[in-house]
Structures are given as structure tokens and as C-alpha cells.
Amino acid sequence: MSWRGWTLGFLAACVLGGLAWTATSEEAPSGAVTAQGEAGAAVVTAKATFAGGCFWCMEPPFDALPGVLSTTSGYAGGDEVDPTYKQVASGKTGHAEVVQVEYDPSRITYAELLRVYWRNVDPITRNRQFCDGGRQYRTAIYAHDEAQLEAARASRDTLDREGRFPRPIVTEIDRIGSFYPAEDYHQDYYKKNPIRYRYYRRGCGRDARLAELWGDQAGGGLAKH
User: Which among 49, 103, 109, 146 is least surrounded, fewest beta carbons within 10 Å?
Assistant: First the structure.
């Protein structure tokens, strides 16, 4: 059982729940999808998908960014169709916990999202993030198109060349396959259950490890939640 699973059981007994960008070019931004605006005009948003351990902790840094429209916790990178949290947590489906970010590319770029992503994960530890171990807690970037794939690889290679870390980055980078939203109770968990969320995050050692790896860049320079 992960530390988070134990925490949920303990706190259940002890704690009360306490773009629109109007298209002006024939070429859309990376990861872009087209929708209809209020006036019927074509508008473009884009999606990015990141695995960084517990998806509860990966929503807040992206939600805080101007230009991010929504974040959705879910599962990607596995074989099981429409898996449940229990199945993914067993480590047998091949999925990772991920957060899918929908954003306005006229206000924030994919490169900026990548910068925030890296500074919210431990990219040099394989199949583990902080207190949670297993393939389901691996770090990974799932690209929605070739441009995202190239940008993700370039950002990883740049960080490796900088020599910041004592070991090479082991974060997986691949094309997105199927994405399955997680159960409703996982969505916006840090907002719905702030006491439980903070208890888990602190106990898991996430912020301490990020500070060790990234110094004052930890979190992407954003205020802590």
C-alpha cells in the first residue's frame, strides 16, 4: 500500500473534510484542438499531458498559471481499457497517474508548461516520486503531436547538459495513447480536501525533495499551495 493509501484510510477516521484563441493562422499550436466559440468562430485550445507521481500534487502548479484553462487527473501509458484507481494503484495495468492540461496557447506556450513540469518532479528517480513507489508513479511526458515530442526531448537534453543533477534524467517521453480521466473524487482534490491534501504532501516529502533538486526554482517559481 502506498503512503497515500495509508493516509487516506487514517484521515477518513481522524479528519473531517475540512480560448479561447481565435485562429489567425492555418497552422495550429502543438497539441491543439479546434472548438466553436460563442459566436461560432473557430477557436483553438491545446492539451499537454504529464506524469509526475501523485496527480493530486500535479494539478496545483498548472492551475496557478495564467493561460491554463483546466487540469484533469487521469491515467495514461497503459494497456487496460478505462482502468479504475484501484487497478492502476496495483501497478498491473501499466498506466501512470497523469494530469492533462488544457491551455490557451496565445497566453502560455508548451515550453513554459515544460519548465513548470520539470520543476515539480524528481526526474532522476526511476519508477518513484517521493514517498510513492511503482511504475504508476513514474515521471513521463506524453506528447500530443510531433512538435510537443521534439520540444519535450529538447528540454530534457538541455537539463542534462546543464549538469544540475548527479545522475541522468530518466523521465520517459512518448506519444500519448489513450487518456482516461480519474474518478471524480480525485479531481481538484487539493481544493476539495485541503487539510488531507496538505497532510499527504508534507508527509510524502515532496517539497523537501523539490527544494533539494531545484533550489529556489522548485515549483517553477510559483506560490506553494
Answer: 146
Q: Do residues 21 and 104 make contact, with C-beta atoms less than 8 angstroms apart? A: yes
Of 154, 148, 116, residue with least CA distance to 31:
148
- The residues that are catalytic are 54
Domain boundaries, given as residue ranges, for the chain: 3-23+42-219
Whole-number Cα distances in Å, 17 to 5, 67, 200: 16, 30, 14
For the whole model, what pTM was predicted?
A: 0.83
Measured CA to CA, the distance from residue 215 to residue 211 in angstroms comes to: 5
Q: Could you say which of 3.30.1060.10, 3.90.180.10, 3.80.10.10, 3.40.50.300 is the CATH number of the domain covering 3-23+42-219? A: 3.30.1060.10
